[in-house]
Structures are given as C-alpha cells and as structure tokens.
Amino acid sequence: MKLWTRGLYRLGAVAVILAAAWILVPRFGTESNLINLLRQAFLLALVATGVSLSMLVAGLDLSIGAVAALSSCLAAALIVQGHVVLGILAGLAVGALGGLLNGAMIAKLKLPFFIMTFSMMFIVRGLALTYTQGTSIHGFPGRFTWLGKSFVGPIPMPVVVGAAALGLLHLVLTKTTFGRITYAVGANAEAARFSGLAADRNIIHVYSLSGLLASLSGLIYIARLNAADADLGMMWPLEGIAVAVIGGIAFSGGEGNILGLVLGGIVMAVVGNCVNLLGLPARFQDFFIGFVIILAVLIDHLTQKRGKVAK
Amino acid sequence: MKRFVRFACLALVGVVALAGVALAAKDPKDVHVALVVKDLTNRFFVEMKWGGESAGKQHGIRVTVLAPEKYAVDNQIRIMEDLIQKKVDAIVIVPIDGAGIVSGIERANKARIPVFNLNTLATGGEVIGFAGIDHVQLGRIQGQWGVDTLKGKGNLVILEGTTGASSAIERQQGVTETLKKAPGIKVLASTTAKYNRQQAMKVMEDLLTRFPEIDMVLCANDAMALGAKEAIKDARRKMMVVGIDAIPEALEAIQKGEMAGTVDSNGFDQGFVAVDLTAKYLLKDQKPPKDTLVGSGMATVITKENALAFDKSKTEKFKKFGIKVD
Amino acid sequence: MVRLTAKLRSAFSGPIIICLGMIGVFSLLSENFFSLSNAVNIIRQASVLALVAFGQTFVILLAGIDLSVGAVMGLTSCVTATLMLKAHLAPVLAAAIGVGVAALCGLVNGLVHSFLGLNPFIPTFGMWGMALGAALIITEERVLTGFPATLRVLHDGEFLGLPAPLLLVAAVLLVLHTFLKATPHGIATYAIGGNEGAAHLSGIRVRLHKTLVYAFSGFMAGVAGVLFLARSNAAQAIDTIGYEFDSIAAVVVGGTSLMGGKGGVSQTLIGVTLIATLRNGLNMVGVNLYLQLVFIGVVLILAYVTENQSLFHFLRELKRRLFGAPTSAEEA
After folding, report:
1. A298 interaction partners in chain C (CB closer than 8 Å)
2. ipTM of this complex > 0.90?
3. Which residues fall within 8 angstroms of residue C309, CB to CB, at 6 or more apart?
4. Confidence (pLDDT) at A311
5. Å from C246 to nearest chain B CA?
6. Tens digits of per-residue pLDDT, B192-237?
7. Residue C220 and residue A37: Cα distance in Å, rounded?
8. Helices (H), C86-205
C-alpha cells in the first residue's frame, strides 16, 4: 500500500510539471516535441536501470558509462564492416561480462561496490580509449541505425526497445523469485543469507544485468548518433543516480520500482527540454535538476515511516 | 602466508609496471621536446601531434606529445610539473585556459626550461614565442561564407563551443562580426553545445522544435556539426550545416551532401611550426619571433566542390612526412 | 625476533607496501623519478586531494559518505574569485567567505542527514547538484581570471625551504590526527561509526556530532577549494568535479572502512600518496595516456585487496572453485 501511495504522489507531481510546461513553454506541446521528449525520457530511464538495479541491492554501479563506451566501440568496429547482428551480440556480451566481473568481485571477494565499480570505470574507459585512440567509428549501415532512428507508427524505436526492456525488468522484479531475492538482499543482505537465500549469486546476476543494460543503452545511443566515440556515457553514472533518486529508488536498498524510473526519466527529460526551448543557458539545467532531486526526496520522506534512521 | 601475499602483490605491481614500460615510448635522442595539447581524442589535436612529430623528425630530435586525461587546466599543470621533473629540454604548451596555465609556465621558468606557447594565448609567464591561428579569422571566414551563400537574407542558428574557452569566444566573435554587417540575416538563437557531438544533437533537436524555419546552422567545430546534421536528418528537415576544423569525417559528410562546408584550422601546421621554432631555438640558438601567425590551410570554406581535392592534398602532405592515415 | 617482525609487519600495511613497491619500480624505470624535487612535486600535486580526503575521512568514519565535496570545492573557488573580482574584497576575506559558504553547505548536509534521518547519499548528492548549479550561475559558465595573485602563495610559496602546501597538509594532519585519537570528541567519532546505538546510550549527542562532522567536511572542501584556486589561478565551476570520487577512493584505499569505526587521517594520507605517486610515476615513465587509466584502476583494486587481506579469501575461493566442491555457507 505504501508503495502505491508514493507512486501516486510521484505521478501527480509529474502531471503537474507536464501541465506547467505545456502552458508556459512555447511549442512544448507540439507533436514532434512530445515525441522527442518521450524518446529522451526512455533513453534516460534505460541508462538509469543499471544504476537502479545495483541500488536495489544497496550498491551502486559507477562503471555503466565506461562499459557502454567499450561495448559500443567494439560493436561499432564490427558493425561498420557489415556484421550487424554479430556486433550487437558482441557488444551485449562485453557489457554482461563487465558486469559479471563487478558482481563477482563484490559478492565473492567482499570488495566494497564503490572501489570495485570505480576502479572498473577507470579500467574499462582506459581500454575503450586505448582501443579507439580517440578516433570515432562512424558510418553504420541502415540495418543498424534502424535501432535508433526508425519508428513504430509515431513511436520512436528507442522508446519501443526501452519500454520492452523496462517492462520485462518490471515483470522480473515483481513476479520472479530473482526479483524477490533482489529486494530481500537489498533490504538486509545478512538476513537474506541466513535465511538461506543465494544472496551472492543474486548480486552477481544483478551486476551482470546492469552491465548488459548499459551496453544496450550504448548501442541505441550510437545507432542514433551514427557514430561511436570512446567518451560515450561520461555523465551516465551521475545522470542515472539523479533519475533513480527522482524515481524513488533508495540508496539503502530494497526500495523502488520501474514505474518510478520512467517517471524520473520523464522529469529529467522535461527539465532539459524546457531549458532548451526557453533558450535558457545550460547552467540552469543543473540547478533545476538539483532542485527536483530535493523535491523528490522530500516527497519520499513525507510518505515514509517516521524515525527510519538511514545508514 | 601474509608475507608471501604481500610479496606476491609487490611482484604483481612490478609486472604491471614493466608491462607499461614495454608500451611506453622509448627513444634515445639527446634533445627532448614535449608538446602538451588539450585533448588527444580530438582529431584536430591529433593532426597537431603529427605536425609536431614531423618537425621533430626533420630536426632529428625526440618529440613526445601529451594531453590530460581530464579536460581541465589543472591536469595540464600537473603534466608540466612532471615534465620539469623529467628534465625535458623544452615544452610547447596549448593551454586549455590561458590564465589557468600561468602557474605551470612560471614553474617551468623557474626550472629554466623554455616554454613555447601554441594556439591559445597564455596570459602570463615567460614564453620564447607564440604561434597560432587566428580563431577570429576562422569565425569570419565561416560567417562571411554564410552571408554570401544566403545572399544576405535568411534565418541562422549558431552552436557555440565550450563557454569560456578562448577558441570558442574568438570564433564566436568572428562570426557575429560578419553577421552584423548583413541586416537581412536573422540569428534566431546562439547557444552552446560544448564542442560535443551528442550534446549538439540534443540541442539541435530542440532548436528544430523551436524554429520551423531555419536556413543555416553555424557550428564552432565539426564534432557539433556532425551531431547537428544527424538531428536534422532524423527530423527530415533541410538546411545547410557548416563546421570548423575540417576533420576527415566532416569532409566525408560534405561530399555526401550532409554538411555544407567546413573551415580548415590547420592543426598540422600549427604543431609543425611550434616544434620547428622550438627546435631551432634549442639547436641553433635562433630566437623565435614573438608572434607567428599560421594560416588556414584554405582561406575559404571547404565545400562539396573542393572537399575531395582538399582531403587528397592533406593526405599527400601527411604521406610526405611518413604519417599513415587510417 | 618473532615479535619484532610481527611489529614491523603490522606497521607496514598493504597500501604502504604497494607504495614502496611502486616507488622502487618507477625509480628503476625513470631516471628522474627518485629525487627530492620530484618528491616535493608529488606532495604539491597531492595537497589539494589530501585536504579534501581528510574531511571525507571523518565522514566515512561515521559510516557516512559525502558526495558533495567536489562541487562544494568548485563553489568556494568561484565564490572567492567572484568576490575578489566583482566586490573587490581583499583576497583573505574573500577566501574566508568562500570557506564559510562551503561549511554552510556541509552543515545543511549534516542537518538533513542527522535530523531528517535520510541516507547521506541523498542530501550530499542533491547538494552536489545545487552547489554545481550555483557555481555555474555565479560565474555564468565562464572562467574567472584576473584577480589579485595574493592567494597563490598558498601553493607556490616556500617557508624555510619547504613548499607551503606541504606545511599546510602536515599541520592539518597533525591537528586532525591528534584530535581523532586523543580527544573525547575524536574518539566519539569512532564510537558513532562503530555502533551508533551504543554511542547514543553512552551519552554521546549523536545527531549534533554527525551534523558537525558533515559541516567539517564542507569546511575542508572549502579550504581545498581555496588551495585549488591558488594552484590554477583561475576559477571554473566544473574543474573540481571528480574530487568527490577521488577523495572516497583515497580514504578507502588508505585503510578506513566504509562501515565506519576504523581508520584515520594518517591512513588517508597513505591513500592520497599512493594515488599521487602512481599518477606521477606513470607520467614520468611515459606510459600511454589511455593505458594510465587502466593501471590506476588495477592498482586501486590491488591496494584495497591487500589492505584488507581479502586476497586470502580470493585465493581460497579460487582454489575451492577450481578444485573443490562449492559450499553453501558463505564466509563473512
């Protein structure tokens, strides 16, 4: 019941923001702009999934941007030569592998998630830059850019792919044992272990999934840009955290859901969109995002049990 | 067991470091000049690197090219400090920020290592000379071509570089200077996309929503132009996109008709001239002139007509110096 | 003899050994690495990070975290620069106000965390955004330069032949170390980190204490921001972004536990030294710029692993997974 209340508050807040933007910002409500907005929101939400999953288990995956960069550069190298399917699979595999490494070291070696994903960020980004030596890989065949540029009716493909991935994730988190264990591990890892749940394996799966989703996001981005650079995703960890927090995912673990993520993505996208449409200098965007985060946290706090002392 | 573990880690660190050395540059020459640029992920600076290395080859000296891993002047200062410790013979510096780099230059002055200033003017410290391209001129070339092509009438949008970067400020200055002289040209918006492709795509998307009629987009660099043209293509709109820097990807886009033009900022010659003057100073005691202006490789905007020829001439030039272009 | 080696062994933690090992390797590979002037060089480069990391140490000892320090540093340098340029304030006064602003940010963090009970990630992350936004707005996204050079002596100056940053860091280290180990308030910090409930029961005013610690972290970020301004002679809002993560890494690698209650500023100094030596050494040896990143990541992991002896677990797990049957009981 509590989860629903918070969800409703969020939905309400988002509706208010959308209405305000519709009225105050010129050309906000045009069809093309709303489609752009939808696309941007789902892209942001997809990027944030990795971070959110790791937050659910009381961790944080700082390496998502770097993993996306490496996997999309490697995939791009194959795709420009025409091996589209192979490239996509290779990219996803690299992402999952990176995540697997993260999860294994965190779960089995008891490395704090911060040190592991932070160091991974350096290592993977360094590998990506070493591989490309700073050049960009560009000129993809239409068979690939379709992923980022085509439409299903009026809906952009990234939204379709993003919605599918998010929907699947939602089902997994709410309907499967894996999902239940994830929330349990996040709420209290030790207790989960003592009740016999395979917490370690769960953590490994969560981080692997995070890496996989990061590389999926990367592939969609390079399909849109029609080019792959090793500096892809530099701001993704921070953007992802912002979306997750706005969406109600808790750092302490065990709380949050996919709907919140989508709403968080919408809010971030709206702020960026309005700043551009109003011709405001880019610096206001950061300030507004900070403000919205505080607002979101306040909403959470007001709907929370009193006296919950965080770590 | 514990001691073994510690030694094992020590050994591992040693192996890792040795591996690094195997990949590091090794070259037993007497004179060592270091060229510090802003960012080696940018093709413009890669060509500057080639220019500097070619000049080095001509003089038979050793040239190392470095860039910070984070785009911040503080990191360039750190590189300079480390170069001073390495006792290089001279440093050629392209400051990310002209005022921010001063403490690095002064430290080199104290260590009596000559410093040559390239591309972006440093506001303090002692340098043996400056060479650079006139960014304002690049902006003027771009702006004038825009005015001429639109025949003095049209709607324009400008994508600027990183706010506060001197190259961005100067290029913008050149563009607005020339546009002001044409009253029929309307600048609908001028905003920054931070010299970044992805940022430019996002900003352009929203600009397309804001303005249903745009005739031309002037971008302060090619990376932004390429991002912008992608957004325009996706929105199925038509307008001319012009960049600066003449990187190969832009030349390709021009030939394909996806971009209208670019301006050559001649990174290669800048790097060459700087290292050449520095080498002459070190080897022959020739004091470099206070200011050396490096010309643009082409004093006009490169368009579909001459893009292929320009690209070919550049590749020929690189081949002459033994540089392999991908 | 056994007791002596045991004492030696406990004095030399993993990160120290790695540090010494790196110094050895770099000295062999680069002829100019092992020199007094390079050592001074490294100290100067590490000083900004050291100051921030000291403040972060306090927060982590409480089992908390401060994600805002990078942005707060930037805010301080921008505020100081703006006050000198626009309000023509004396540099020292401008710096004092800048540091005051930083402490205020930290105070807000502390209040929200302690009295509203929110996980410290949240207020410090929000503060990150707001401090960055404020800095960008104050500077209008430009780089501020052209202010009086008085403050530069903090970074470039020398007293008694020693560089000013070294003296500053040493003095701060001495004060903080003594505070943590020898005063009741310092010991209380460890107590809260170790077991907050027990600390509360023993009479420590936990919420007040935590609030002050976060304010202190903000204060140190402010001081680091002023030193950063002295070093780069220019203020730009985004220049200091990244220091928050670096400071946390330095603290954790040095040996302070993220769970709180264990560690200290002298350990953090080792962590900072390790990172700074690594960066300098890689530059001196001339390792490819991009490959440097890979090395830094690997060394960070190694440093942490050796500090905490979990290499044991790794070797044992590896052995078990390769040769033996996996057990369901996990090791703590």
Report:
1. none
2. no
3. B2, B5, C14
4. 37
5. 13
6. 888 889 889 999 999 999 999 999 999 999 999 999 999 999 889 9
7. 41
8. 91-116, 121-139, 153-156, 164-182, 184-194, 196-201
pTM: 0.85
Give C283→chain B minimum CA distance, Å: 7
pLDDT band at A310 (very low <50, low <70, confident <90, very high): very low
pLDDT for res C10? 57
- Per-residue pLDDT tens over the stretch A85-129: 999 999 999 999 999 999 998 888 778 888 899 999 999 999 999
Selected residue of C125, C200, C248, C320 to mutate for chain A interface (largest A Cβ count, 10 A): C125
Beta carbons of C278 and C295 less than 8 angstroms apart:
yes
| Cβ-Cβ contacts under 8 Å, B79 against chain C | 283
Length of chain C: 332
Domain region containing A128 = 2-14+30-302
Structural contact between residues C232 and B74, judged by C-beta atoms closer than 8 angstroms: yes
Angle between helix axes C265-285 and C164-182 (nearest 10 degrees) is: 150
Give the number of domains in chain A.
1
Provide the CATH number for the domain formed by B135-256 in this structure: 3.40.50.2300
- Two structure tokens written together for C186: 């310092």
Specify the 3-state DSSP secondary structure of C161: coil
Q: Which residues of C touch A110 (CB under 8 A)?
A: 310, 313
Strand partners, B36: B66, B93
CA–CA min distance B128, chain A (Å): 31
Q: What is the CATH number of the domain that holds A237?
A: 1.10.3470
3-class secondary-structure state, position B187: strand
| DSSP codes joined into one string, B52-66 | HHHHHHHHT-EEEEE
3.30.70.380, 3.40.50.620, 3.40.50.410, 3.40.50.2300: CATH of B27-133+266-294: 3.40.50.2300
Show the DSSP H helices in A176-257 as ranges. 177-187, 189-194, 199-225, 236-246
Question: What structural domains does chain C harbor?
Answer: 13-309 (1.10.3470)
Helices then strands, counting H and E runs in chain A, come out as 13, 4
